[in-house]
Amino acid sequence: MKHAVLIAAMFLGTGAAMAAPAPVEDIATGAGNDRVAKLERIIKARQQAELDMQRRLDTLQQEVLELRGLSEQQNYQINQMQQRQRQLYDEIANLSAKSSATSVTVDTGNGAAASSSLGETASYEHAVNLVLKERQYDEAIPAFRAFIKQYPDSGYAANANYWLGQLLYNKSEFAEAKQAFSTVVERFSDSNKRGDSLVKLGLIAEKTGDMAAAKSYYRRVVKEYANSAAARIAQQQLAAIKG
Q1: What integer pLDDT is reported at residue 220 of this predicted model?
Q2: Is the dihedral angle over the CA atoms 159, 161, 167, 169 positive or is it negative?
Q3: How far is Cα 170 from Cα 168, in angstroms, rounded to an integer?
Q4: Structurally, how many domains does the chain consist of?
C-alpha cells in the first residue's frame, strides 16, 4: 500500500513539474531593446546623411547653373562684340569707298569738333574709328553725340545711338545709356540693334534695382525676338531674377 502511495506521489510530482511554465527571456526588453534602438539610430543617421548629401548636391547644381548662365552671358556679349566689329569694319570699308576724297585734318582728341567738320558718312566713320581702331572710348562719346545731334534721321543713327549707349553703359553712366538705348527701341523699330537695346535696358534696370522693369524688358525681348541670341540672354536673366 505504501509502495503504491509512493508511486502515485512520484507521478503527481512529475506532473506538477511538467505543468509549471519554463522561464522565458522577454525579448522585448533588455538586450533586445538595445539592438532595436541601435538599428533605429543607424537608420536615422543614414537618412540624415542622405539628406545632407542631397542638399549639397542641390547647392552644387545651382552653382553650376549660375556659372553656366554667367559663362553663356559673357560668351554672348563677346560674340556680339565680335560680330558688330566685323559689321563695322565692313561699313567702314563701304563708307571709305563712297566718301569723297576730301583731305581733312582733325584733332582726334576732340570728337565733337571733328564730327561737326565732316559730312554725314565721314562723321560716322570717324566716331567708329575712335572705338575700333584708336580705342579712344572717351573721345568717341562726344563724337557719337555730335553725329546724332547733327544727323538724327541718318541711316546710321540707330547704330550710333546703340554705340553711344554701350560706351556710356561701360562707364556706369546708366541714365544717359538708358536714353540712348531707348532711342533705338522707340525710333528705330526695324533696326537689328533693337533687341539688343532692350536687353541692355533690362540690364540697366537690374543694376539700378528696378527688377519689375527688368523683367518687363526681358519678356519683351523673348516675345518680340523669339529664338534670337538676345532672347536667349533675356531668358537667362529672367531665370536668374526668379532664382
Answers
A1: 95
A2: negative
A3: 5
A4: 1
In a domain, 121, yes or no: yes
Nearest CA-CA partner of 123 in 109, 136, 135, 140: 140
Highest mean pLDDT among 29-38, 79-88, 168-177: 168-177
Residue 95 has pLDDT above 60, yes or no: no
Domain presence at residue 237: yes
Domain of 160, CATH number, reads 1.25.40.10
Return the exposure string of 67-106: e unless at least 16 CB atoms fall within 10 Å of the residue's CB, then b.
eebeeebeebeeebeeebeeebeebbeebeeeeeeeeeee
Burial-class residue 7 by CB neighbours within 10 Å (0-12, 13-18, 19+). Answer: exposed
Q: To 10 degrees, what angle do helices 157-170 and 137-150 make?
A: 150
Q: Which domain holds residue 90?
A: 71-242
In a domain, 12, yes or no: no
Confidence of residue 39 (pLDDT cuts 50, 70, 90): confident
Taking residues 176-184, what's their average pLDDT? 97
Q: Is residue 216 part of a domain?
A: yes
Give pTM, 2 decimals: 0.56
